[in-house]
Task: structure prediction
Amino acid sequence: MSFALILIIIKQIMKKIVLLLLLLINVSAYSQQQEHLQFMGIPITGQKEYVAQELIKKGFKKDVNITNSEPTTIFLEGRFVNRDAYVSVVENGNDIVWKILVLFEHKETWNSLLSEYNSIKELYSKKYGEPDFYEEYYKDNIYRNSGVELYALNNGWIKYTTYYKVANGIIGLFFAPIDNNSASVIIVYEDEMNAQQLEEQILNDI
Result:
C-alpha cells in the first residue's frame, strides 16, 4: 500500500475519536483499575517510542516516512492475525499512548473486503464472545449484491461496524473507504484510562 493511501486512511480514522470516546463513556463507567488494555501483550500506555520498540521486538519495522508526517503517531509494518498490516501507535495530548490502529491491505472488490472483515470478526468473537455493538447498515437494499458496494461505502451508504467492550478498553472493527473502488479493514484498540484522560482534556478546553 502506498504512503499516500495510508495517510488518507489514518486521517479518516482520527475523525472517529469522539465517537469511540462517547461509546466508552456510555458502556462503562471510568475504570478504577490500574491495568491497561493490551495489544499483542503490550500495555497501551506510556510513550509511543516505548510501545513501538516493544512491537519491533515482535518483528514489526518502523516506517520513518509516515511517522515523520504525524508527530503524535508512530507507524510500523508487520504481521497481525496472519496478515500483512500497518500499525499506528497514537499518543494523547499528554504524550501517553491511548490508541493503536491496525490497517490491513486495501481491497478492490467488495467480496474480498467483506470476507476479510467477517474472518477477523469471527476470530475476535471466539476470544471475546458476541460483540457489544454491531451494525451492518445499508441506506437502501438496492446496494446489496449490487456490484457497486465500494462506491456506496465511500459515500456513506453502507457501514459495517463492530465493537467489543473488553477489560480495560474497547476494540473496534470497521471499514475505512479509500475511494469509490477500494477500502480497507481497520481494527482499533483504545485503552479506557488513557482515553478518559483525553476526554477530560477535551472537556477542559470547552
